[in-house]
Amino acid sequence: MDPLRRKRAFIGSIRTDSLFHVLFDHLQDVCLFAKDRDGRLMVVNQALVKRFGVRDERQIIGKTDLDLHPRGHADKYRVDDLRVMASGKPMLNIVELFLDLQGIPTWHVTNKMPVLSKDGRVIGVMGTIETYEARRTLGLTNKRLLQAYEHIRTHFHEEVSVRDLAAQCGLSVRQFERKFREQVWATPRELIMRMRVQRACDSLRETTSPLLDIALSSGFYDQASFNRHFKKHLGLTPGEYRRRFG
Questions:
Q1: Predicted structure pTM score
Q2: Which own/partner contact pairs does 87-92 have at CB distance under 8 Å and 24+ positions apart?
Q3: Which DSSP state fits 117?
Q4: Alpha-carbon radius of gyration of the chain
Q5: How many CB atoms lie within 10 A of CB 74?
Q6: Which of 8, 58, 68, 208 is 20 to 30 A distant from 151 in Cα terms?
């Protein structure tokens, strides 16, 4: 079936009060999507088309996450989709790493919810994707926590003491980590690791430096730690990432 005919058929099956698609192309900074039960993209807005680096929605309509993302990421996205469809309940504020078709990584906040047919059956998943930095800017309102965030953003590749950051905020470590997570959607250690992985991705794409040098300059203690954390977040080893996107 032609991708656009498939799209129209999918939209036609959605319950009237779920006609979210009319808003899609008026949002510039928020990517929106809907997938059918098999995980195929049925509806996308122009922001998502642009993020994938393609000219026309026909190039991604009907494709699955496995067609568009590394297997490790695609498998994780599919698990979340199946969970939403099975439970009929949304999953909100999922912080995850996305790679575009050029391998450039960005952290995003994803919300997913079930798509219901006119007779109330779950027929897919729809959701929004926003850049983590945009959402973080809106969410982080405490001045001292903002200062702690900025310190991590500037010094993530160095040794960062969570205990010292907590003391500067006048909090215990437990209180600091809880409040930080409430506003940043990550613990300080999780945020540090995300920034290190993103720095490493840039170096792998843009330089020919040895992997150990990249590991150390990104803040990892050794190459083994680098390999382990990198694969956990991207589903690829540093070497595989460089061969694919370097």
A1: 0.72
A2: 88/114, 88/122, 89/113, 89/114, 90/114
A3: B
A4: 20
A5: 17
A6: 208
Shared-domain flag, residues 113 and 163: no
| Cβ atoms 42, 36 nearer than 8 A | yes
Q: pLDDT, tens digit, for every residue of 74-111?
A: 898 999 999 999 999 999 988 888 887 778 888 888 99
CB atoms within 10 A of CB 93: 10
Q: For residues 31 and 24, what is the distance between their CA atoms, to the nearest angstrom?
A: 8
| CB-CB contact of 60 with 31 (8 Å) | no
Residues 154 and 123 in one domain: no
Give the residue among 103, 41, 92, 86 at the shortest CA–CA distance from 67: 41
Number of Cα atoms under 13 Å in the Cβ half of residue 119 = 0
Q: Which residue has the tokens 């799209």?
A: 7
Taking only the tens place, the pLDDT of each residue in 213-231 is 999 999 999 999 999 999 9
If asked whether residues 119 and 161 sit together in one domain, one would say no
Single out the residue in 77, 111, 135 at which a domain terminates: 135
Phi and psi for 27 in degrees, rounded to 5?
-105, 120
